[in-house]
Amino acid sequence: MAEWVRLCGLSEAPAVGQVMEAEAAGVGICLANVNGELSALDNWCPHRRGPLGQGWVEGESVVCPWHSWTFHVKTGVGEFPVKEKIDIFPVKIEGEDVLVDLERIQASGVEPT
Asked: From CA 107, how far away is CA 53, in angstroms rounded?
């Protein structure tokens, strides 16, 4: 069952090519805007818990500001280093609110059953 939680207002969301840190129900989220589409990722890099929401966008990935580990915004799969991954959360916009589903974590693009 979905647990949609407000992450931020649409006017607060990052501009195209930008990221930001946010929190929903105590969960740290990196919100990225890639090509005009919002993606929500776990905010914490698995390397040393660097804040991904303070990083930057390269192509379709978010880069950790601490050691440049890179994660694809749709799959969470690490491009550098290979085989690392982070959780991805479904995102939807309702009116002027950006919502994330905290129940349906999509690790590597595969939802739990």
From this structure: 18
What's the predicted TM-score (pTM) here? 0.88
| Spatial separation of the C-alpha atoms in residues 102 and 106, rounded to whole Å | 10
Contact 19, 62 (CB under 8 A): yes
Helix, coil or strand: residue 52? helix
List the structure tokens of 36.
């005009």
* Spatial contact of 99 and 91, defined as CB atoms under 8 Å apart: yes
Report all structural domains of the chain as residue ranges with CATH numbers, in order of start. 4-101 (2.102.10.10)
Whole-angstrom Cα Rg for the chain = 13
Q: Which amino acid is at 25?
A: A
Report pLDDT digits (tens) over 52-79. Answer: 999 999 999 999 999 999 999 999 999 8
Residue 53, helix vs strand vs coil? helix
